[in-house]
Description:
The chain is mainly alpha-helical. The protein has helices at about 5-10, 45-60, 85-90, 110, 120-140, 145-150, 155-185, 205-220, 235-250, 250-255, 260-270, 315-320, 345-350, 410-425, 430-445, 455-465, 470-480, 510-515; strands at about 20, 30, 100, 185, 200-205, 300-305, 340-345, 360, 380, 405-410. A hairpin with an 8-residue loop joins β1 (about 20) and β2 (about 30).
Amino acid sequence: MKNKILILLSIVVTSTLFTLSCSSDIEKAEQDSDYLTSETFYQNEGAYKQFLAKLYMGLATSGQGGPSGAPDIAGIDGGFGQYLRAYWQLNEITTDEAIIGWADGNLPSLNNHTWGSNNEFIYAMFSRGMYQVSLCNEFLRQTADDKLDSRNVSAATRADIVNFRAEARFLRAFSYWNLMDFFGNIPFVTENDPVGYFLPPQKDRAFVFDYLVSELNAIDGDLKASGANEYGRIDRIAAKMLLAKIYLNAQVYINQSKFTEASSALASVLNSTYSINTSSSYEKVFLADNDVNGSQTEIIFPIRFDGLATQTWGGTTYLTHASIGGSMSPSASGVDSGWAGLRTRPELVAKFSGDPRGMFYTDGQSLSISNIGNFTDGYAVMKYKNIKSTGGQGSDAAGQFVDIDFPLFRLSDAYLMYAELAARGQGSISQAVSYVNTLRTRAGASSISSSDITLDFVLDERARELYWEGHRRQDLIRFGKYTGSSYLWQWKGNSQSGTGIDDKLKLFPIPAQAIGSNPTLQQNSGY
């Protein structure tokens, strides 16, 4: 059974929490006087934790009406508009790790880098990210001291709210990081800005970078210590991991190297209570019971899913179903059907060469992709399985919705971040070898030596360990391999054999709908 955070996440709010602003570029969630801004809601002090649960649930579900109803954002199918699904598609389908055969709207353009500002799947990520920011802002307004004073909130609840507010600020920072990473210069709004008709100013990456560093440092003392929070909720180490990632990518974001700062933040993660369970297996990290099967010791920040409590057509339900087709058996992955969409490209397969982490399905599948729309073109990936380590499928007996928690941050990533920093001259090569070999031994792969710790090796090793976990686009950009022609993969640049692409594609366009509702926004160069 999932623990009590998922009990909170399963709370169904029967009234719309926020309405979407028709005047705002960001589809900003405005106040609804009948619910979260109603004083009646806060008469029960448990309301604050329920609201916090909504912030976490915003990463996992589409809205208030289950998988098919009342989505939080408008203009796109609820499944396509779910946060993780939108985030994953922009980070993976645009790279050598994944390709999708569906012809829905402008989805195919993600495969071949032909997207434009009217792409509804890019707009889904933009809208979902800003909606999350708006929810976090409203939570912070409702938990301000003056509000708590006026409601005579008890000392015990106020003590909890200190942690809650720090978690909300982290979740806002996470969404702003996503938005900065995808879109560059973004609308910026906090709890101190007006509610209602308001056009948020556009801030550049340097401003957002500094803001995120400041925020993550500011909340450090108010977050719970390593491992002290409920599994699935943020602690101090998750904030350090995000801070390390922001510093690691500083050359991309602000054209400055921050590897020393990245190493310092990462040290807190590496010296924390999180650990790699070497007596377990790589495969278990992606099973239905990865919250209890021993894998949870390395998962720093998961998006939690439960086949009964958090039903969605996005998330790991999407990753499991959409990667099944051809001659594959859905029951082997613990689900009732395959959606025949996602596969991988041959360049990823080539990186494994017998490495057991390559969980590819090859029967009836061709390695090369001639026809993107044909599921059997390209190897299938069986990384996410709605199967428990003890046998049997997840909690949904019908096999529609899965229990697999998605590991946004895990310690294995931190180990490989250390190896990258060592290859860049910021760390011990021998320690990097030890970290890499811990992961390779757990997976049953051969060990490496000091001479292997090069940037090219680390980039490939990140693919082997972290493929289909939402890291690849950012990695390729940071290593200088995403645009241009120094590294090609099938259908890069809309050519089967791959061709170089323009540097403008390191950023997605600000959606045309956003600019239409906030004319002060400036489009990214080249769009």
